């Protein structure tokens, strides 16, 4: 009997404040979608770091003709200088840091360039002579880049030593900033959701003040009187959280897996299944926000 009464009161409250309930659902949906989007970005950053850091290389670019850098003042790299560089990489003191290395000639560099920029209008204007020779080194520990840089950057015939991880860090930094922006927007939307929930509960309590007064007179407990109001806000937040989870799953399924993963097969992307790791947190956040804001509102506007 008591459960049926509570469910009836919830239904009455939702019908009387339908427009406000829909507003709560939409604002909760938008705010939790931004929270989930930020979480997905962090998952993607972690996935890419784990994938690319295992494949990151250090590139030792060799001098060519008419290079303007100070290290190439003596002209293009010679065979003797190449031999010295390889001897240094094979020496016991340096080999412990190097997993493997390969030499890339100008022609190989041009071939790789054409593969990477096959859709670019500049691909046919670049020649092999414009590209440098290089050694591509995979380190045992990518954190030891500075050791390689110090050893090889001053050697004759070396133009510059480049850590590809620095380029990746720039990309990860941009993604991290994007996730913080998403969280900031989510924070504003969450405040809006809390205020809307509080307003909805306040209006519901005001419109049913006669019923609550009668309930107090007949001895109904504080929990029985307040629970329908609290559950109204929780139900609206749960619907919003469910919609946010569905939207994030759709992004993962149709945009990330259906498009990005196919266009960039060499990049490690998260999948739609990763959304289910985020989903419990979104639902819990929605329930907590709705429950706490409802309870605080009832303490102020519904004296029991």
From TrEMBL:
The residue ranges of the ABC3 transporter permease C-terminal domain are 184-303
Membrane keyword on record = yes
Q: Is Hydrolase found in the keyword set?
A: no
Under the heading Gene3D superfamilies, the entry gives: 3.30.70.3040
Record-annotated FtsX extracellular domain positions: 56-161
Q: Which UniProt keywords apply?
A: Cell cycle, Cell division, Cell membrane, Membrane, Transmembrane, Transmembrane helix
Endpoints of the signal sequence: none
Q: Which InterPro entries match?
A: ABC3_permease_C, FtsX, FtsX_actino, FtsX_ECD
| Annotated membrane topology | Multi-pass membrane protein
Q: Where are the transmembrane segments?
A: 21-41, 171-203, 223-256, 276-298
Q: What is its main location?
A: membrane
Tell where it localizes. Answer: Cell membrane
PANTHER family cross-referenced by the UniProt entry = CELL DIVISION PROTEIN FTSX
Q: What does this protein do?
A: Part of the ABC transporter FtsEX involved in cellular division.
What's this protein's family per the entry? Belongs to the ABC-4 integral membrane protein family. FtsX subfamily.
Summary of subunit composition and partner proteins: Forms a membrane-associated complex with FtsE.
Q: What is this protein called?
A: Cell division protein FtsX
Source lineage: Bacteria, Bacillati, Actinomycetota, Actinomycetes, Micrococcales
Gene that codes for this?
ftsX
């Amino acid at each position: 009997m008591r459960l049926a009464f509570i469910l009836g009161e919830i239904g009455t409250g939702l019908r009387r404040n339908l427009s406000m309930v829909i507003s709560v659902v939409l604002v909760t949906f938008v705010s939790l979608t931004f929270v989930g989007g930020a979480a997905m970005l962090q998952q993607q950053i972690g996935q890419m770091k784990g994938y690319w850091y295992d494949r990151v290389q250090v590139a030792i670019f060799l001098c060519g003709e008419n290079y303007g850098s100070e290290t190439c003042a003596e002209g293009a790299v010679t065979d003797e200088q190449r031999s010295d560089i390889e001897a240094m990489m094979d020496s016991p003191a340096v080999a412990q840091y190097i997993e493997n290395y390969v030499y890339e000639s100008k022609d190989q560099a041009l071939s790789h360039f054409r593969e990477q920029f096959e859709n670019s209008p500049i691909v046919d204007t670049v020649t092999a002579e414009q590209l440098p020779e290089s050694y591509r080194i995979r380190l045992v520990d990518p954190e030891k880049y500075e050791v390689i840089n110090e050893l090889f950057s001053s050697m004759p015939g070396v133009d510059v030593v480049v850590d590809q991880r620095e380029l990746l860090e720039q990309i990860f930094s941009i993604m991290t900033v994007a996730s913080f922006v998403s969280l900031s927007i989510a924070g504003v939307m969450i405040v809006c959701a809390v205020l809307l929930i509080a307003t909805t509960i306040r209006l519901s309590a005001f419109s049913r003040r006669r019923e609550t007064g009668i309930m107090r007179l007949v001895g109904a407990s504080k929990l029985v009187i307040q629970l329908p109001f609290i559950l109204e806000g929780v139900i609206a937040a749960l619907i919003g959280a469910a919609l946010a989870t569905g939207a994030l799953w759709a992004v993962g399924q149709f945009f990330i897996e259906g498009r990005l993963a196919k266009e960039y097969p060499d990049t490690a992307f998260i999948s739609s299944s990763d959304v289910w790791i985020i989903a419990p947190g979104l639902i819990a956040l929605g329930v907590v926000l709705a429950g706490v804001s409802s309870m605080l509102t009832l303490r102020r506007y519904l004296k029991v």
